[in-house]
Amino acid sequence: MDDGRRIAYDSPVVTTQFQVEIAANRRLTGGYFVLELASERANPVADATPGQFVMLRGDWGRDLLNGRAFSVLEPIDRHRFSVLLKVFGRGTALMQDMPVGAPMTVTGPLGQGFPAPTEGRTQLLVAGGVGLPPLHFLARTLAATKAPTPEMFYGGRTADDLVLTDDLERWGIPTVLATEDGSRGVHGRVTAPLLARIELAQARAEPVELLACGPTPMLRALREIGLAHEIPTYLCLEEMMACGFGVCLGCAVPVYGDKPYKYCCTDGPVFEAAQVRW
């Protein structure tokens, strides 16, 4: 496998591309699976922060030329990291069937992750479906430090969409689960128990902040909740990306300020909710 190479473009972005092999391909429920990727040499994903992502591409020749963007699930060590995926289209279907030892190309880590915890505020982490990885990563990071324990609100359509919950239990992360069909946890959308928790916090004068990743409709709702309750809210957006480092300009996000748009891959994927012009 290659050592990795630095790629510089006309933009100020400089990123790293390197080769890996699939060390494990673990299937979960609901079409979800975890890929563990390993490189011969130490790779920069070891220094990724929660919310950053990588672009992955298999050895597929001219089929599916562009990589696919996935949040980092866990930097395991200097050589290995993992991502959580769900089969949505042709690219993820190909990845689900890739055997151990298959080569892949990685570009990353990319983007801007979540901010450090604000002293004195309880972090309420809100994950929807495949939006779990950056918050799972964040929960693990905080559980390993002396930082205040966050609380997780994790929702999906069915019980099969709620994966890796054993990790949260093992780390001692208080977790509220919700499913739209009532097959696990609270019956309904995850925003309902979250609103109850926010109201409790405001009755107690307890400062909280929201950090979320999931489907855009969920993030739109959380933006409104955060603004209405005057709570600091950070959204990890899910946008289609072709390059991952600001060249293709395909992941524009409407924002307030001097510029009408920013780009999910370089300015995000984490944005302050008040900044996003939805």
Would you kindly provide a written description of the structure presented here, covering whatever features stand out?
A seven-stranded mixed beta sheet has the order 11-10-9-8-12-13-16, with helices on both faces. It has a six-stranded antiparallel beta barrel with strand order 2-3-6-5-4-7. Strands 14-15 form a two-stranded antiparallel sheet. The chain is globular, with a radius of gyration of 18 Å. The longest helix is centred in the C-terminal third of the chain and has 13 residues, at 191-203. Residues 1-14 have low confidence and may be disordered. The chain folds into two domains: 17-110, Beta Barrel (Elongation Factor Tu (Ef-tu), domain 3); 122-236, Rossmann fold (3-Layer(aba) Sandwich). It is 18% helix and 33% strand. It has helices at 90-96, 132-143, 165-170, 191-203, 216-228, and strands at residues 5-8, 14-27, 32-38, 53-58, 68-75, 80-86, 103-110, 122-128, 151-156, 175-179, 186-187, 208-213, 233-236, 252-254, 261-263, 270-272.
Distance between the termini: 44 Å
Number of strands: 16
Regions with little confidence, pLDDT below 50 for 5+ residues? 1-14
If classified by CATH, what would the architecture of the largest domain be? 3-Layer(aba) Sandwich
Radius of gyration from CA coordinates: 18 Å
Keywords for this entry:
electron transport; 6-stranded antiparallel beta barrel; 278 residues; iron; disordered N terminus; single chain; 7-stranded mixed beta sheet; 2 domains; 2Fe-2S; Cyt_c3_hydrogenase_gsu; Riboflavin_synthase-like_b-brl; Elongation Factor Tu (Ef-tu), domain 3; alpha/beta; Rossmann fold
